[in-house]
Amino acid sequence: RNGHTLFGVLNYTKTPGGSRRLRSNILEPLVDVETINTRLDCVQELLQDEELFFGLQAVISKFLDTEQLLSVLVQIPKQDTVKTAESKITNLIYLKHTLELVEPLKAALRSCNTPLLKAYYSSLEDTRFRIILEKITTVINDDTRYTKGCLSMRTQKCYAVKPNINEFLDIARRTYTEIVDDIAGMITQLAEKYNLPMKTSFSSARGFFIQMNVDCSTLPNGQLPSEFTKITKMKNTYSFTSPDLIKMNERCQESLREIYHMTYLIVCKLLNEIYEHIHCLYKLSDIVSMLDMLLSFAHACTLSDYVRPEFTDTLAIKQGWHPILEKIAMEKPVSNNTFLTEGNNFVIVTGPNMSGKSTYLKQIALCQIMAQIGSYVPAEYCSFRIAEQIFTRIGMDDDIETNASTFMKEMKEVTYIVQNANDKSLIIIDELGRGTSAEEGIGICYAACEYLLNLKAFTLFATHFLELCHIDALYPNVENCHFEVQHVRSSAGNKEKIAYTYTLSKGYTEEKNYGLKAAEVSSLPSSVILDAKEITKHIAKQILHRQKSTPEMMKQRAVYHLAMRLVQTARNSRLDPDSLRIYLKGLKKKYEASCPAPGQNDEQ
């Protein structure tokens, strides 16, 4: 609601239908690459052709809620009341307004080049639009149109039907006009009688009433004359009525009921004639909502340096950033790289509290969704593998409604992921196992990691359990990354602070006891902090040294990564022969550097 969502970042739609379409696409992204690229082609053309962009935006912004209009038009009311009659008349005016926008929309699309926009232009050439509009204009006045303001719209409804179609309707409308003129004349007489700046006002709730701006000190005895009733005051603005005006409002309403009833009969007959052609309007509704959403994507791109995504078998994001964080902070956040392939499909992310792990994980999921709905992505370059599902396990909340503790809720969510994920899934897990003891948490994390590793899904796993980082010795498709922090001494020089860089680097974090450092920033008493440090040192002495990879393991891992890079290059490379030769030489040097030197012992 406050705009700090992906919907809020991308929503620059002008119509209710476009807004609904954007929301449904975010909830259910596309999985067909051809359809996504078709949308991206449209967004690219809109960004490159300003005339097309602003021309379409100007026309689309004039459309009303076409989907709702169609649903109301095809409904048959259970009983004919004044309200249903008024609604039908209003919707016919809306329909006329919508059909009159078809030609301007066609004109805006005439110069387009992308297949989807051309297809929309062809759809708008359907002769049924012209047939329906011609049938409407035989009955409805040419100058009848949708307007803002309840009184103006009421006038449009009263005089919607052309004169000389129904004699009794013409008489009723003349009566209505006379009553309205009498009301205006009566208020003018009252203004002259009391020498006050009265004017005629109207609201749907009160009908016609009197309004004036005057300082109460200028009124006789500081009050309005006694014949006025229902007085309300807002600062120096008075609103009121009189018994005579109330009676005239009743006469006006009675006249309106007669007009609406007779107009309704004519409108119903007209609608029956156009029902056989109404199917083209569903296509129009689809075109308007899709164009509105694509324009919204293009608008969002103009406000930030987004880039068009590619679709391969690799998830590669160069200098990507969090789109929602950018909107909240009103500046570009720190950007980071992401790389996952079939041979490097599991990334373990470590780092101190508040270093940016959770934000980074959410950023990847948001970028994946943006790419799969046909939007540009906040990055310098990005390539995505189509994700058939996106699973997330984030947060530390319990669930009172289902009597589930924090840990039980974690387990339910992980169970759902394990049962439903496949090799085409994107899985985001943030600090699993925090709701139970450290030993059990590590065990559960290990088991979950091994299952997901064998599944071959793309997985990003943030954790504080550094023991998990050693799983890369057993599985070469695991990559360790961490968020760097810097240690800064205070001006007095006696206290050390953590400065967060929010920068992702390879390897697991070397930070020790960063939870204690975060606690020092809080309001915990210093005695508690000192005790915690002593206890931590005591426990640390009892923990075994971290396992280190043997030279053989290091060589196997280097060979595995080299092979996967060569496969990726063969599949996706678009380099010319000379550039490819340089790239392969670089791979060779990297492989030689990562292999242990001959004679290196296990302790090294």
What value does the average pLDDT take? 86
Question: Beta-strand level of the residues, as a percent range?
Answer: 5-15%
Any low-confidence stretches, pLDDT <50, length ≥5? Answer: 544-548
| Arrangement of strands in the largest sheet | 12-13-14-9-15-16
Helices and strands: which structural class?
A: alpha/beta
What is the rounded Rg?
A: 35 Å
The N- and C-terminal alpha carbons lie at a distance of 56 Å
What is the CATH topology assignment of the largest domain? Rossmann fold
How many helical stretches?
21
Could you tell me the number of beta strands?
A: 16
The largest pleated sheet is described as: 6 strands, mixed
Tell me the CATH superfamily of the largest domain: P-loop containing nucleotide triphosphate hydrolases
Count of individual domains: 4
CATH architecture call of the largest domain: 3-Layer(aba) Sandwich
Helix content: 40-55%
The global form is elongated
The CATH class of the largest domain, by name, is: Alpha Beta
